[in-house]
């Protein structure tokens, strides 16, 4: 019977591994806004140290991963399919073995530690509750397998169900629950051991949009109240921005950028991150001049635009300028003195309730987007209208070309 809790194949829905390490030892912390981060990599709760993964002995799915995760942090691994994020989670859980490098948990190397001895709770997208058991029995079963007494089992089950506000459903079977309720039970099962670390692999992917958004806040609030460390995998950018303390953006087996949600959105490090996180306007050009933290970029159609140089350094260098739609302004009086303006033609105006999404033809592109709030007195543009647009230099970033 123990194989039910040590094998992903037998218990792929929500794998509760073992109880947490309660030594009380922990890293030193400093505050950076609302985010608590480990002071040094050696103090981190989870460490990937030069980790690589290959399935065929030739190509690397994960390429030299170095990542430190602080105790109590909510870190999301975000990226497209095949980027390596899920493989990293599976190596941390113990379901995959690192080809090279070391993974440490609370300062202890765990490459050779079997999954059921790592002190980890896990939730998968396919929660796979035992259909013949009640909710209470689903949570109690792994505790019973480990020889825990009846009274202690019952107390832990009720506490875990109360955490997810499902105490009243203890005697129901999974078939009597909605998808969202089943996901709450899967989450409770991952928490029933009081694990110090919980891993979540696309746990909300099977839910509809409204319920998924509601569960995002529930999981985040639960994390905040319990103070557990969460490593979360998703390809949904909005989900990552909503829930995370930090986000590691993966592509081609590497972390492209590791930062807070605000830093990722406002200050992407490269063209991939700028294009992957949120909606983004892209204008390719050549650097005309760089001075005073400001790049002057000439577009193929001859116009000059302003941007902040990120990973371009010299005149004549090709670049891709990234501008978020909500940072573009069509009221020149609201722009800083000296900002360059560029001609645009309105192609389409889409009413979205709280905002207007306007598509423009700009410098040969007919998919340039601006977003403006639907406020009292807001001027609504009309298709065919000719306008001039601009932005503050700090709101556009001159990045590596695509």
From TrEMBL:
Enzyme superclass (EC): translocase
Reactions accelerated catalytically: ATP + H2O + polyamine-[polyamine-binding protein]Side 1 = ADP + phosphate + polyamineSide 2 + [polyamine-binding protein]Side 1
GO CC annotations on file: ATP-binding cassette (ABC) transporter complex
Domain ABC transporter, chain residue ranges per copy: 46-277
Protein EC: 7.6.2.11
Keywords: ATP-binding, Cell membrane, Membrane, Nucleotide-binding, Translocase, Transport
One Pfam family linked to the record: TOBE_2
InterPro entries linked: AAA+_ATPase (IPR003593), ABC_SmlMolc_Importer (IPR050093), ABC_transporter-like_ATP-bd (IPR003439), ABC_transporter-like_CS (IPR017871), Mo/tungstate-bd_C_term_dom (IPR008995), P-loop_NTPase (IPR027417), PotA-like (IPR005893), Transp-assoc_OB_typ2 (IPR013611)
Calcium recorded as keyword: no
Subunit and partners: The complex is composed of two ATP-binding proteins (PotA), two transmembrane proteins (PotB and PotC) and a solute-binding protein (PotD).
Function (record text): Part of the ABC transporter complex PotABCD involved in spermidine/putrescine import. Responsible for energy coupling to the transport system.
Protein family (similarity comment): Belongs to the ABC transporter superfamily. Spermidine/putrescine importer (TC 3.A.1.11.1) family.
The protein's name: Spermidine/putrescine import ATP-binding protein PotA
Natural source organism: Paragemmobacter aquarius
Lineage, broadest ranks: Bacteria, Pseudomonadati, Pseudomonadota, Alphaproteobacteria, Rhodobacterales
């Amino acid at each position: 019977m123990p194989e039910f809790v040590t094998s992903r194949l037998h218990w792929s829905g929500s794998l509760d591994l073992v109880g947490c390490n309660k030594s009380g030892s922990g890293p030193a912390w400093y505050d950076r806004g609302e985010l608590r981060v480990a002071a040094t990599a050696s103090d981190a709760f989870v460490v990937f140290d030069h980790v690589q993964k290959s399935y065929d002995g030739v190509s690397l799915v994960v390429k030299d991963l170095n990542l430190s995760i602080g105790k109590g942090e909510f870190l999301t691994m975000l990226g497209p399919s095949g980027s390596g994020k899920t493989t990293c989670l599976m190596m941390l859980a113990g379901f995959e073995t690192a080809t090279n490098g070391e993974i440490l948990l609370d300062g202890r190397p765990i490459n050779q530690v079997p999954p059921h001895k790592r002190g980890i709770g896990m939730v998968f997208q396919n929660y796979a509750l035992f259909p013949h058991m009640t909710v209470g029995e689903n949570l109690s079963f792994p505790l019973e397998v480990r020889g825990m007494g009846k009274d202690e089992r019952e107390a832990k089950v009720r506490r875990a169900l109360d955490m997810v506000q499902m105490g009243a459903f203890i005697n129901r079977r999974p078939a009597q629950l909605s998808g969202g309720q089943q996901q709450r039970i899967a989450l409770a099962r991952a928490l029933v051991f009081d694990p110090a670390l919980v891993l979540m692999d696309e746990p909300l992917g099977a839910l509809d949009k409204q319920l998924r958004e509601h569960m995002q806040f529930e999981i985040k609030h639960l994390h905040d109240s319990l103070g557990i460390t969460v490593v979360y995998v998703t390809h949904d950018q909005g989900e990552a921005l909503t829930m995370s303390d930090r986000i590691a953006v993966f592509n081609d087996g590497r972390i492209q950028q590791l930062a807070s949600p605000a830093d990722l959105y406002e200050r992407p490090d490269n063209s991939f991150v700028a294009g992957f996180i949120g909606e983004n306007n892209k204008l390719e050009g050549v650097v005309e001049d760089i001075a005073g933290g400001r790049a002057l970029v000439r577009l193929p159609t001859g116009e000059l635009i302003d941007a902040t140089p990120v990973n371009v350094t010299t005149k004549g260098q090709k670049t891709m300028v990234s501008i978020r739609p909500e940072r573009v302004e069509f009221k020149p009086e609201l722009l800083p003195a000296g900002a360059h303006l560029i001609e645009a033609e309105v192609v389409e105006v889409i009413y979205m309730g709280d905002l207007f999404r306007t598509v423009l033809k700009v410098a040969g592109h007919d998919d340039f987007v601006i977003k403006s709030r639907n406020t009292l007195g807001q001027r609504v543009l009309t298709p065919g209208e000719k306008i001039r647009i601009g932005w503050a230099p700090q709101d556009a970033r001159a990045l590596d070309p695509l």
